Amino acid sequence: MNRLAHIIWHRLTGLMPGELDANEVLWLISPHQQSPLLARRRAMVVVNRVRLFAFLFAVLTPLWSIVDYVVFPFPLWFFLAGMRLVAAGAFAALVICYKPSGNLLNAYRAMALLFAIPTVFYVVSHQVLTSFDLTGMSAAIGAGYAFLPFVLLAGLAIFPLTFLENLAFIAPMLLSQVLAQILSWGQLNWPSFAGAFWLMALIAGVANLAGMSQLAFMVALVRQAIRDPLTGVHSRRSAEEILELYGSVANRAETPLSVAFIDLDNFKSINDRYGHDEGDRALRRASKAINESLRSGDILTRWGGEEFLLIMPNTRLPDAQAALERLTGQGLGRRPDGTLLTASVGIAERIHDKASQWEQLIEIADRRMYLAKQSGRNRIVVHDLAADAPQD
């Protein structure tokens, strides 16, 4: 059984060769293990697309009242027009009130509202239409209302969602179709209902695959955008985004946040004596050595040149210092001549250093890193004992 599951898994991942790493394939199933940066960017994309979808519905929904006015009797038209105006107002409020915030729960709420509005409209309009004896063109236009759930399910395809997220939005729409038919039980045509429900399930499956495909493409793009091409660790740009995210969370929750500036000692001599290729290899060895010693939750970024920034969420200053002492105790790989590659480290922590902004943390850690260099290199500084010392 395990062998069969492994074969199926291998075949599925083979459908997207080169797009995703093995550990990233699980991100297509559930959002729980996704990186904070991916979740943040995905949330912004989802809200932007919700607002676009809502804008289109806000414009098109009341315009269809013109068609209803031509074909429906006045009492039916008047009721449907009122419903359309209410729905259009709700869509407009969605466009105005929801802004991209990078919060995935906020994105879920926006999507839920977007699909709830037309779903309620469909259930109510279905009951009203079945209470009228429509014929000819009126019956044809009335039957067109039944296509609204199909449009909604197809619309899911524009959102980069995981398999489980898609199911969470698909299930209420399928249930609303069942509810609408139950409410009109006396006029239920079972063959027609079964065929329509099967077609909706098929569209839902295709939309789910389309959403997962969009998500896979986004995962690959985000990975390329946030990684340093030489070392494979996070880039400076992604570090700034991570610090903004973690900093705001730490400020709200009043939790510690530590950062460590790591500057490789005498690195320029490697480039001068052995060439830049050897320098690049030394950087890769150093980043690998640091990565292998990281604790769960710590994030290593390349800040620039031979400088690395280690982000340590929910970590107090003494714990950060102990972690860095373990990390640098055995050296950070080897120099081309076989000697240990060492580093000068400065550490700052949000609560201890009274830094309300992440930029302040970077400035303090950077200053302390220079103090470590001026004090003889290959050491860690956690206090501004010589904050007024000149920097070289």
Automatic annotation (TrEMBL):
Its EC number is 2.7.7.65. It comes from the Bacteria. Keywords: Membrane, Transmembrane, Transmembrane helix. One of its GO terms (molecular function) is diguanylate cyclase activity. Residues 255-385 form the GGDEF domain. It holds the Pfam family GGDEF. InterPro entries: Diguanylate_Cyclase, GGDEF_dom, Nucleotide_cyclase, Rev_trsase/Diguanyl_cyclase. The chain crosses the membrane at residues 50-71, 77-98, 110-129, 135-159, 166-185, 197-222. It is an enzyme of class 2 (transferase). It catalyses: 2 GTP = 3',3'-c-di-GMP + 2 diphosphate. This is diguanylate cyclase. It comes from Oryzomicrobium terrae.
